[in-house]
Design brief:
By secondary structure, the chain is of the alpha+beta class. It folds into three domains: about 1-95, no CATH class; about 110-235, Roll (PUA domain-like); about 245-375, no CATH class. Helices cover about 30% and strands about 20% of the residues. The chain is built from eleven helices and twelve strands. It has helices spanning about 10-20, 25-30, 50-55, 75-85, 110-120, 175-180, 245-250, 255-265, 280-295, 340-350, 355-375, and strands spanning about 40, 45-50, 110, 125-130, 135-140, 150-155, 160, 190-195, 200-220, 225-235, 320, 335-340. The strands form three sheets. Strands 3, 4, 5, 6, 7, 8, 9 and 10 form an eight-stranded mixed β-sheet that branches. Strands 1-2 form a two-stranded antiparallel ribbon. The radius of gyration is 23 Å and the shape is flat.
Length: about 400
């Protein structure tokens, strides 16, 4: 078996070349696609395990050549097992955190080659929902207008995205349901816009579902029907909290029970048409963040140590962390948002044991919120299990 020849030195050499060239150039050089399940974790970074193994074979010297994708199979019993035997970390897919969003805003990608061959999902239509993938892919373009789709930016900064369904009233099934419920599953909504080049799409960015409305629009047969138009809000990768705003100060003055009720209401997905502006959306997010910071009482909910310092207003400095990704932004259920110190926050995102700490935090938060439901004066009628 070719993989039996691999050594720790050859693997480290492949990792070094990966770092030097960058992921895309490294994969292109050796002819591999992006990994979907198994990643080698080393020094806080993730590497495509099969590509590393193939390249490492060519680092052995003495006539050894790099292996091509077809020369060996990937997976738990082959690549992952061999790398683990060499004392490298290759977590099982269910225990590995996503390696981040592998697309750059404004860059062009081929839909079939760069998206579906890597992640799977439906290759036709506007919404792709690959199984076991942390992303829901959304595709927009002028061609959708023939089916009653008219997507685009609103003046308030939200993106109006028409749901799927070519005939009859649109329903919350399949892709439409995936958009509405993406927060509960910790999935990111990634939006791509078609270009004039066939199969080529420009990555617009990561979004979160904020609300929806229904409009009368013609279907493929020209008949009027109810069309779902989603309100999508751009999401920015996690950043430290800004200085305390006036709105946040007003929220902080509220009793814990009232603040928790506001957070739970803000976290819930709209059950009726609810068109809203990005400002309203971020105001809902602020309610969740303010509540979890109050809940922590100045103690990191991951390491259980006191906040490392006080902010200028005298409050302890902790950072909200979403245990379910959604690019670590947007409102979420309080059971999935923890108040953590900067060290734990970075350890979770970049550290070797980050996935383990994230799992421990998620279990802790579920227990805390469950206890809140039974604490007199804190329980609210909107309590209960987190959304799924």
């Amino acid at each position: 078996m070719p993989l039996a020849d691999l050594t720790p030195t050859s693997v480290l050499s492949a990792i070094g070349e990966f770092d030097e060239l960058g992921r895309d150039a490294f994969l292109k050089k050796y002819g591999f696609r992006r990994s979907r399940s198994y990643f080698l974790e080393h020094d806080g970074k993730q590497y495509d395990s099969k590509a590393i193994a193939g390249a490492a074979h060519g680092k052995l010297g003495n006539g050894f050549e790099a292996l091509l994708p077809g020369d060996f199979s990937g997976g738990d019993r082959t690549v992952a097992k061999r790398l683990r035997d060499l004392n490298f970390s290759v977590p099982d897919p269910e225990n590995a955190r996503p390696a981040g969003i592998p697309f750059e805003v404004g860059k062009l990608y081929h839909r079939q080659r760069d998206i579906h061959q890597v992640f799977g999902g439906q290759e036709r239509g506007g919404i792709a929902t690959p199984s076991g993938c942390p992303f829901v892919f959304l595709f927009t373009g002028a061609s959708g207008e023939q089916f009653g789709y008219s997507d685009g930016w609103r003046s308030d900064g939200a993106f109006a995205y028409t749901g799927e369904g070519q005939t009859g009233d649109m329903m919350f099934v399949r892709g439409n349901r995936a958009i509405r419920d993406h927060m509960g599953g910790g999935q990111d909504l990634l939006l791509f816009e078609a270009t004039t080049s066939k199969g080529s799409y420009r990555y617009i960015g990561c979004f979160a579902f904020a609300g929806w409305e229904t409009l009368n629009a013609p279907d493929r047969k020209g008949n009027l029907r109810k069309a779902i138009v989603f309100e999508l809000v751009p999401i920015i990768e996690a950043q430290p909290l800004p200085e305390t705003s006036e709105e946040e100060i007003q929220l902080q003055e509220k009793p814990l029970a009232e603040l928790r009720a506001l957070a739970l209401a803000a976290a819930a997905s709209p059950k009726v048409p609810s068109k809203e502006s990005p400002r309203t959306y971020y105001a809902r997010s602020l309610k969740v963040k303010t509540y979890v910071l109050r809940r922590a009482s100045g103690v990191c909910e991951a390491c259980k140590r006191e906040a490392p310092f006080l902010k200028k207003d005298g409050s302890p400095y902790l950072e909200p962390h979403h245990t379910k990704r959604v690019a670590d932004g947007g409102p979420d259920h309080p059971s999935s948002v923890g108040a953590v110190c900067p060290t734990c926050h970075r350890l979770i995102h970049h550290g070797k044991d980050g996935a383990k700490l994230n799992d421990e935090l998620e279990r802790y938060l579920a227990g805390v919120e469950q206890s809140m439901d039974t604490t007199p004066g804190v329980s609210t009628s909107q309590g209960g299990p987190p959304r799924s």
